[in-house]
Every structure is written in structure tokens, then in C-alpha cells.
Amino acid sequence: MASLESLVSEWMRLDQNEVTKLEIQRLSDDGNTAELEQRMRTRIEFGTAGLRGRMAAGWSCMNDLIVIQASQGLCQYVMKNVENAVSRGVVIGHDHRHNSERWAELTAAVFVNSGFKTYLHRGLVHTPMVPFSVQALQASCGIMITASHNPKDDNGYKVYWENAVQIIGPHDKGISASIKANLEPKTWTTEQLHSSELCLDRTQEMKDAYFSNLSSLNRSRSLNRQIEVKFVNTSMHGVSDPFVSRAFESFGFPPYVPVTEQQHPDPDFPTVAFPNPEEKGALDLALRTADAHNAIYVLAQDPDSDRFCAAEKGSSGQWIVFTGDQLGTLFAAQVLEQYRASGKPIEKLAMVASTVSSKMIEAMAEKEGFKFVECLTGFKFIGNTALQLVVQGYEVPFGYEEAIGYMFGSRIRDKDGVAATVSFAELVTSLSNHGKTVHSYLEELYRRYGYFQTNNSYFICKDPLIIDKIFQRLRNYHSDTKPAYPQEIAGMAITSVVDLTTGYDSTNPPTYKPSLPLSSGHMIQFRAKKEDGTKMVLTTRTSGTEPKIKYYIEASGKDKAGVQDILVEVVEEQGATWMEAEKHHLGRPKA
Fold first, then answer.
1. Where is the domain boundary, 415, 437, 472?
2. Which family does this protein fall into (predicted)?
3. Which of these, 369, 337, 364, lies nearest to 353 by C-alpha position?
4. Which residues lie below 8 Å from residue 320, measured CB to CB, with a gap of 6+?
5. 148 is catalytic
6. How far apart are the C-alpha atoms of 155 and 208, rounded to whole Å?
7. How far apart are CA 266 and CA 270, in angstroms?
């Protein structure tokens, strides 16, 4: 193991940013070994989400040196693994976070220095613009500098492969190895970047092409002009406002009411601790704005505008914030109706969702006759699964994950908050024309396909050894059975177990190998059933980016009250008995 002194010495040798260099020097001079160990001992890992972490000096953080090294490794890997990579070029975009523009330019400088044609988007773009541009320009890869909805101190480096989908294995490991083989910085300067003939500006052209493609989702422009429903929109201090505003205009909607305090990009996110529309309290300002303007619907995008959330004011005056799964079901039903209206054979329609998302689309597919496919969590898997289905002859106009991410159409195989926003607004238009609301339509879908209710949350655990211990106990719950997973929960018999860590699927004899690829962390899914037909799916997994044990619980059945009761019981028993939350001092999110 390298000494802390040698790790610090190597940093001081390589880092040419005087601010971060001084950070490490001061920690060293002060003898702050605890902080230095945290920053210097472990290198930030390049994974399937690229890089994401706190902005600070050190090998474990996001900074100039780490970005340059990542870019050099990626550059060399792409050159070796993508045909004509240099001439096809690379697409680079960035959001508004601290250091985002600088890191986009440093990344571009690395690629230009290696002779790559480099399409560097000028100004702020939303994340979907990068995969769209990779596809439109037939580039060899794409990089977006963003930390999505993470807190203000974080930033990230997201990579798209030549197929315009986020990278998956083995590329993540290949890029990681290439980074470690290319650690000596070859360039730090960006002064000549914009004058280089290799650094190209196709930003406006790509924006125009993006909105031209988005217009293919526009089904009811004439009705949109006449809608009397008022929308409030929040961009959560992010980049989405000009994109959503142009999309609204393109679709023929009257302008929305912006949440002015959150309308413009602000890297400090002053009104929200966590700029994620899913977080409790994040929509409070938007809801108050809607109340003040007598608006019925609130629309929200996360800061880099690839996620979407919505709320509806009920008849009693209470706000209903739709869950990610509810929105996914609503969008799926909308896409199904549009596909059916086109006259195309329904058996050629396919939709994709992550395995931790609701099973309601699965029930919808069984009843209506289209194909539904599950995949691992993350749009890197959803996008690639969609492409595989296209090769098999299917159309895949929609895919989603419960973490408020939605994919529309065939050009962007990634989540797109702008497309989701206008798709939801069109759904409102269509329903209001028939005297319905989105919530009343959701209730119709429940009556047709069964009531599906979810309870998704997490436990906080900062000790990896305890997390391992909890999951090991779940795999050895009964000493007298093989396999030894729990056999019941909340009075329901466990009917199947899929462990994507060990590679076990009880539903797939004789090999018992799962059809889904293995997960890099802990991930187990249990299905259970009551005698009255009520079903339950519980998936528990570790987070790749946070100290959390996440769980996704969904109950379904004909009786709404019974479904809700089961959810409460499962949540309680899982925490108290399965996870032994009190014994292990597991934290929970604030109520």
C-alpha cells in the first residue's frame, strides 16, 4: 500500500491548478491526515455512470486533474475501440454547475490535442442534447459535464458510447483501465481551444434538430392552443427553462407560469437543499406559486433536465404529486393509445422499464398484447435494451425508470425531461377535452389493470461491512433450507426470489440462472402472493453512488384498501425483521 506521503507528493507533482494544489499543501502542512486519507487514499472510480463526486482537491474528488486524466483515458480507449473515432469526433456539453464549463473545455482540449474532431456545445445545454448530438452527428462518443440532481458541491462526467447510450460493461472497466494507463497530463491549457479548426460549434444546428425531432411527439397542436388549464413550471435552478419554453411554443401551448425564484441557472441552488423534484419539500415553492396563480398542474425538471415530475391540484384543494411509477404508467397508456390509433400491429410494440419499476406496465402488456421487457436499473440498460428490441423488429417508443426518468421516441435512447414535460401537457390537453383530469384517468387505469401502489425509500448505512452483513443474512435466513432466503413476509408466501448478486433465479430451473445480467452491488427481488390474489414485489439493492440500502415495494390487487394495508405491513416487517434496522442503527430519510 502506498504511503500517504507518496500520494500527496504525486498530487503535488501532477496538479497544475494552483487552488487545488494549495488545498492539499495546506492539509499536509496542518498534519490533517484524516482528511488527507479520505481525499487521497482511494481514487474516484470510473463506472457505468462515469464519474460523480464532491468538487475538491484529491484523488477521490472531482477536479481539473481528475477530469484531464479521465479524458485522456477515454480518448485513448475510444481511439482503439471505435472505428474512425478521430474523424467521427466527440460531442461535449455542460450544465451550469461550478466548474462545468471549465471541465468541458479541458475535456475538449484533451481530445483536440489527440487530433479528434470535437463538437463542443457552446453555452448551457440539457443532458439529452449530448446523446441526441452523438446520434445526429454519428460521433464516436459523448461527454456531459453534470451531476444531475446531486447537491451543489458535486459535479460529474457522464459518458455516452457511439450508439448514443450511456456506457455499460465492459466499456466501463476498459475506460477505467485506460485512465490508469494515461495519468500524466499532456495539456492543461484551453487558451487556443476555440480557435482550433478541430473544435467545432454545431450547437444551434443541434438544438434546432432536437426541437424538430421533438415535434414528432406533438399530436394535438390545434387543441393545445385552446387549452384553458394553467401550468406552473420549475426548472429547479437548472438549465431547462429555455428548452421547456421553446418546446411549449413549438407544441402550441400558451406560456406557462415560471417559478421565478428557480427559473434561472444557479449553481448554489439557494431555495432547495437537494435539487431533486423527488425529494420531500423540493416542490413546495412551485406548489405555492401554483396556488397563487390558480394553476391546476405543476411541472418540474431536475437541474440538467433529464428527469421530470408533475403534480395536480385535486378537487379538495390538496396537491397530488405523482410518483415516478404513476407517471410511467400514464405515459405508457398514452403511447399505447397513440400506437393503436396509428393502425400498426400491436404485437410489434414494445416498452421497457427497469426491474425496480412498477409491474403495472407488465400487467398492461399482458392484457393488451404488446411486448414488455424488464432490465437492470439505469438508462444505460434501458437504452441498450430498447436498441436490442429494435434489431428484433419491434418499435420501442417508450421506456422508463421509477426515478422519474422517461424515454420517448426513437432518436434519444435516454431520459428526457423536456420531452416528458410536453408529453404530460399534451395528456392534460387530451383529457381535459373529455372532462377528465390526469388523476381521474389514473384511477381508470387502476380499475382496468388493477391497483398498483408503491412505497419506495431507503435506509442510510455508511458502513459497507454492515450492509454486506445484512444481505448475507437475507441469503441465509433459514439454516434448514436450500436456498435459505426468507419464505414469507406480512403473512404472504414468497413465490420467487431473484438474486442478481449471486446469480440465482428460483423461477428458472434447472439452471436457476437469472435472465437479467448480474448487478455490481447487492440486489435481490422477492415476489409474494396472498390467497385472495393480492401480489407484492420487493426489490432491495445497494446504491452505486450513495451510502444507502434502497428498497422498492409494490403491492397490487383488486382492492385498493387491501393493497395499501399490505404495503404498510411489508415496510414495517422489512425494516424491523429483515434489515434489523434498530440493531444496525440504520438511518431513514426525514419525514
1. 415
2. Belongs to the phosphohexose mutase family.
3. 364
4. 311, 312, 313, 314, 439
5. yes
6. 28
7. 8
406 part of a folded domain: yes
- Across all residues in the chain, what is the average pLDDT? 95
For 342-389, the pLDDT digits (tens) are 999 999 999 999 998 999 999 999 999 999 999 988 999 999 999 999
409 and 498 part of one domain: no
Nearest in space to 91 (alpha carbons), one of 409, 412, 308, 396: 412
Residue 410: φ, ψ to 5°: -110, -5
137-141-145-151 Cα dihedral, nearest 10 degrees: 120
Sign of the CA dihedral with 389 first, then 391, 395, and 397 last: positive
Cell 456545445 sits on residue: 121
Q: What is the pLDDT of residues 459-512, one digit of tens each?
A: 999 999 999 999 999 999 987 777 899 999 999 999 999 999 999 999 999 999
Handedness of CA 100, 102, 107, 112 (dihedral sign): positive
Q: Please enumerate in sequence order all residues whose Cβ is within 8 A of that of 364, keeping only pairs 6 or more positions apart, or say none.
A: 329, 332, 333, 336, 372, 445, 449
pTM for the whole thing?
0.93
The 10 Å Cβ neighbour count of residue 388 is 15
Residues whose CB is less than 8 angstroms from the CB of residue 122 and which lie 6 or more positions away in sequence, other chains included: 201, 203
What is the helix (H) or strand (E) element at residue 231, kind and residue range? strand 231-234
| Whether 481 and 397 share a structural domain | no
